[in-house]
């Protein structure tokens, strides 16, 4: 075993302390930002690379899956490399792969670099939080976590706005290029300010079999979901092969991890009822939330005439009230049964999403944006107390593993939901189109009215087809919102499977 430092480091004070805090917060902000900045950019990316919008969502899912796979490795990487080296190295690699994403000339190369970007970004969230708690004295730890949490809430708001503005005013590669100066600056300053806090390193054995099985079943399932519609699902031998690989890989992964002495994912934490109920709730609710969040800008830009900037402003509305009520949610989560807060928060998200399932094609900006604005009221009452409930359900020595697994499941559910939503949206639109064709202008009156107004028959048919397509998409969008709202309701009820916690958890290990 080797040690990076044999004595306690001299603590940072004053401006140096807050400069280090800002570097760590900026790193967290950048990684969270990249989970949402591409959402409003998908139509622009798809157009620029000459692919469909459903294929364009691979840019989102590939990043999310890669990031999810890296999270369970963070503890092992930190022990092998040191927390500061891991943080700085991840930052620099994140910046490098961001540049390569912007330079990508095809969807295949862009997805490859997004995977590498996600792998580099995975350790940054937990490492930024860990280092914040290490450099701040205990009496100021609350302020440090408050700063870190604020970036986690603000970044999803800024992502759609920044992504939309950059796409409209410059071009889509700039949503990736913008990361580079931040990554280089944070990497350089992070090393200068934090190297005194480098942790001891040790040679730990990694569960290579568990890691390989994890990558096999997750990648196979994600590829199956992403390519299913394009290849006509189980009529394709490739989709069948991916499904079998995912099924066998998952079964082998479960058996191996439950019998391995030092598993890469500690599945034994699922023996706690409160923990698995919390993970079930966050997986259902976050999947519903993220799927609807990805769908909204595609619908607004593709069929409602919004620019990327306008879609970004509408989507970002959901974060404004979330930031404002987050401190209240944090206070109440230590005084009130967290199950009640989670139930109310998730049920509120469900009700707003069900309300959105009555949207129409003649809605104005504020009719789209106001429900999203009020949706933000439920978000902190979902995330904050649910994390506390999950951590209070496991043993203290299991918290790091439990937090990593919860983050893994949350990120994975978002990636899977994105694929399912975009595929279902296209399928439902095609079905609705076929249904509406039989009901459209059966008497020919609408066609005669259009031709009598001076339009040629071909133009009249084109106008009717455009209207038909718009209504088919609108119906499909409402159907997806309805299913997402129903999933929220199920998730809200699932939290009551958890017992009332007997203690308040220290959630500093959560990320």
TrEMBL record:
Flavoprotein among keywords: no
Listed Gene3D superfamilies: MFS general substrate transporter like domains, Multidrug resistance protein D
Pfam families: MFS_1 (PF07690)
InterPro entries (UniProt xref): EmrB-like, MFS, MFS_dom, MFS_trans_sf
Transmembrane segments: 12-33, 58-79, 86-105, 111-133, 145-166, 172-194, 206-225, 237-256, 276-299, 311-329, 341-358, 364-384, 480-498
Cellular component terms per the entry's GO annotation: plasma membrane
Protein name listed in UniProt: Multidrug resistance protein B
Source species: Chromobacterium sphagni
């Amino acid at each position: 075993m080797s040690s990076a430092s044999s004595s306690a480091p001299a603590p940072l004070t004053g401006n140096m302390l807050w400069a280090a805090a800002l570097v760590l917060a900026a790193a967290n902000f950048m990684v969270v930002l990249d989970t949402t900045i591409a959402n409003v950019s998908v139509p622009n990316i798809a157009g620029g690379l000459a692919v469909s919008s459903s294929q364009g969502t691979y840019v989102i899912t590939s990043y999310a899956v890669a990031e999810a796979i890296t999270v369970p490795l963070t503890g092992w990487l930190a022990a092998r490399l040191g927390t500061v080296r891991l943080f700085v190295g991840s930052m620099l690699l994140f910046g490098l792969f961001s540049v390569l994403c912007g330079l990508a000339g095809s969807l295949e190369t862009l997805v490859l670099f997004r995977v590498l970007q996600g792998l580099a970004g995975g350790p940054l969230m937990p490492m930024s939080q860990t280092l914040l708690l290490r450099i701040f004295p205990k009496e100021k730890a609350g302020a440090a976590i408050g700063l870190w949490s604020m970036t986690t809430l603000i970044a999803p708001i800024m992502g759609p706005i920044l992504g939309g503005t950059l796409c409209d005013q410059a071009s889509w590669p700039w949503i990736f290029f913008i990361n580079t100066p931040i990554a280089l600056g944070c990497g350089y300053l992070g090393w200068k300010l934090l190297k005194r806090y480098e942790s001891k390193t040790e040679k730990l054995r990694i569960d290579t079999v568990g890691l390989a099985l994890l990558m096999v079943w997750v990648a196979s399932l994600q590829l199956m979901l992403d390519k299913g519609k394009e290849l006509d699902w189980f009529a394709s031998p490739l989709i069948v092969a991916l499904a079998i690989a995912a099924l066998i890989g998952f079964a082998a992964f479960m058996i191996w991890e439950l019998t391995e002495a030092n598993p890469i994912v500690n599945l034994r934490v699922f023996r706690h009822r409160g923990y698995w109920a919390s993970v079930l709730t966050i997986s259902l609710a976050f999947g519903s939330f993220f799927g609807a969040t990805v769908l909204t800008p595609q619908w607004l830009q593709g069929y409602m005439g919004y620019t990327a900037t306008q879609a970004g402003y509408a989507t970002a509305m959901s974060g404004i009230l979330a930031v404002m009520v987050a401190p209240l949610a944090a206070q109440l989560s230590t005084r009130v049964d967290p199950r009640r807060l989670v139930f109310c928060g998730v049920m509120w998200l469900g009700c707003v999403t069900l309300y959105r399932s009555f949207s129409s094609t003649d809605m104005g900006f504020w009719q789209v944006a106001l429900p999203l604005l009020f949706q933000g009221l439920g978000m902190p009452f979902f995330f904050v107390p649910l994390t506390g409930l999950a951590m209070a359900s496991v043993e203290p020595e299991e918290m790091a593993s439990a937090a990593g697994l919860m983050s893994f499941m949350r990120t994975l559910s978002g990636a899977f939901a994105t694929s399912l939503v975009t595929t279902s949206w296209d399928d439902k639109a095609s079905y609705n189109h076929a249904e509406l064709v039989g009901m459209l202008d059966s008497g020919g009156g609408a066609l005669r009215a259009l031709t009598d107004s001076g339009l040629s028959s071909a133009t009249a048919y084109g106008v009717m087809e455009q209207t038909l397509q718009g209504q088919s998409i609108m119906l499909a969008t409402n159907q997806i919102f309805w299913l997402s709202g129903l999933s929220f309701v199920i998730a809200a009820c699932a939290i009551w499977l958890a017992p009332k916690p007997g203690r308040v958890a220290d959630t500093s290990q959560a990320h």
